[in-house]
Amino acid sequence: MALEITGKLIKVLPEVTGEGKNGTWRKQEFVIETLDATYPKKICMELWGDKTFILQTFAEGDTLKVSFDVESRPYQDRWFTSVKAFLVRREGEGNAQGQNANTNTNTQTRQNAPIPQDPYPDDLLNNGGGADELPF
Question: Model pTM?
């Protein structure tokens, strides 16, 4: 089930990388604020794999339209929810995923790269931490 939201880019957090059983992984989180004038909400979303570079084409304050999926996963009898973006574009643009008119073909190739199906490597979930430690 894919969802879509429009909001203002508030913050781009640093990219995080690591090693898992399937090789190197990376993710980048960003925060958007909904455009609801009465009760605006801030939502932290994440991009995985080769999609992380998309955020470099935007500046804080830009109005973005984001397509995303929401998924919850259990970890040590607790549930954690992630909001995984898969398409980010400026409000009013087509399905360009943040492309500018002068984007080169290498960037276009990376934009079409698939997001890993399981972005949570086993070593990230089974880090040997205590019950109070989060896996991310």
Answer: 0.66
